[in-house]
């Protein structure tokens, strides 16, 4: 367990918008202080972090199910029409000689969302229990989730790129299908869940969520 003091122990508070550090004069109210630089309301912790993050994470998981079951892309040529889900699209890319692209799509569409579900669930459960287990490693996991979140829309970009490129061909066509919408919703909801989670709760060792 780290013995370094937290900001709340030092009587300071940081603005989540402009990152200015100010003296904590909230007292027991936690509703009256505004940032002296940008005017945003200051909170010791993100309000309702647990409930908001859980709600967004569960909604993202519900969207992820049809995102994998429904086709995301239709490829049509003179003699063939083929609808592909995420996984079947990965297999087709591999079989047709694009293993690099198949690995990228598999990583962005399967591994990354599952990793985000697992990491955020672990962080929520451990913080809610006030666990002091591997706090530094959990903080690093959260930073990893934030970093990979920027690349989560890669699968949607691949479909959009293929659609744009193949439209130049008279003999073939690529169309996005409803699975892309559900996958896009999954990505957006997991990003919002990551933003709603307050990593400072990792270091609290107790639930101070308001």
Describe the structure.
- It is found in: Cell inner membrane.
- It is a single chain.
- The protein has about 210 residues and is mainly alpha-helical.
- It contains 7 helices and 5 strands, in the order αββαββααααβα.
- The strands form 2 sheets. The chain has a 3-stranded antiparallel beta sheet with strand order 4-3-5. A two-stranded antiparallel ribbon has the order 1-2.
- β3 (about 75) and β4 (about 80-85) form a beta hairpin.
- The model has no long low-confidence stretch (mean pLDDT about 75).
List the helices and strands and how they pair.
Layout: H1 7-10, E1 12-14, E2 21-23, H2 49-69, E3 73-77, E4 81-84, H3 86-95, H4 99-128, H5 135-149, H6 154-166, E5 172-176, H7 178-196
Helix pairs in contact: 2-4, 2-7, 3-4, 4-5, 4-7, 5-7
Subcellular location: Cell inner membrane
Transmembrane segments: 54-73, 101-126, 147-170, 176-197
Keywords: Cell inner membrane, Cell membrane, Membrane, Transmembrane, Transmembrane helix
